[in-house]
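Annual report, structural modelling task.

Input specification for the pyridoxal-5'-phosphate complex:
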Amino acid sequence: MSDRPLTHPGASGPGSAWAAAARLDAADPLAGRRRAFVLDDDTVYLDGNSLGALPAAVPGRLAEVIGREWGELRIRSWTESGWWTAPQRIGDRIAPLIGAAPGQVVVGDSTSVNVFKALVGAVRLAEADDTRGTASRGTVRDQILMDAGTFPTDGYIAESAARMTGRTLVPVPAGDLPSLAGPRTAAVLVNHVDYRTGELHGLAAVTAAAHAAGAPVVADLCHSAGALPVNVDALGVDFAVGCTYKYLNGGPGAPAYLYIRAEHQARFDSPLPGWNGHREPFAMTPDYRPAEGAVRGRVGTPDILSMLALEAALEVWDGVDIAEVRAKSLALTDYFLARVAALAPPGSLVPLTPAEHARRGSQISLRCDGTAAVMAELVRRGVVGDFREPDVLRFGFTPLYTGFTDTERAARTLAAVLREGTR
Ligand SMILES: *Cc1c(COP(=O)(O)O)cnc(C)c1O
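The model returned the following structure:
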């Protein structure tokens, strides 16, 4: 991956810019993946970082689940259709997308709920380590560090988790997490990519520093999994959470996932020990005995319809090389940045997303006046992104179904809206 921005086409007239974009599409090894999605050619969909497009395999699979598995087999489907084991089975399908070996990911609940499980579990782990005498003597791990730019729900949940575990939540700029992790740190919660700015945070540096301080890391992968290589196993990340309805295209409200690193599973003490995480759920014993493995991260009965829709949605990743996804994501975002800079009225847009590849996720955030009206007009003209208050336009680039001509059209439409003004 080079850090050199693509030189933008279009220097010799509008026709050649379209032609250059079409050539990039023709040379794109992922271009054919678009056919695996339900999309219309009238719309450029740049909101897959909020709700991924519908994979074409999902409607048929859901019809079968409802008609046959629920409608005819009814209760037999918990075993005969594999419903009961779906959370761990689908977790194993997500695992390669985040660089995890099998047996460490379970699907279920929302990201919010999984942040709670993971963070309290991480603090309890640090506490257990200290009790075993592995911490430096005389210090108290009384703080949970978190990146201050966090998606709000992570911050709300972390504040409650801190209060429940007798810690103080300390929000700091993401870039300061490595230098601030220390003997007082009980756990670190970090968003891998900032949902607002699209900035990619250095998960390797955060994890290394937290571990040097004896503290576990919880990574929120909502805006990175499915868009770029994550490598939780290789980085040593302790716990990870993420949603499946953004880059993983699982559908509205699709269940989230929880990664529990293999070496921590035997000591993972879930703050939500539901019966689905019990060693023998159908023994119906009054005492809780946690299951082996990541299964102890489960809580209650899984939402089977959403879960099986997600399972079908994940088929679009079969045979996809995530390094190729990343290369295309960077090429698309480079292209968009260059074309917007060339076409938009000077000074009308200020990129918030870092130009540096090593610090960029898969979305471009642009500061702009009149954001809500600008986005409404863009949507009216068939270019769908979104905005975050007070003044940030967001454009998510999903390499499996977005191309360079789409990106050319988005840049031109945005420039036109800014030139012409909104009503
Ligand atoms: C989208 C997102 C969430 C969403 O949480 P839910 O519980 O699914 O509503 C949480 N955290 C981050 C970082 C997100 O981007």
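The longest helix spans residues 322-343.
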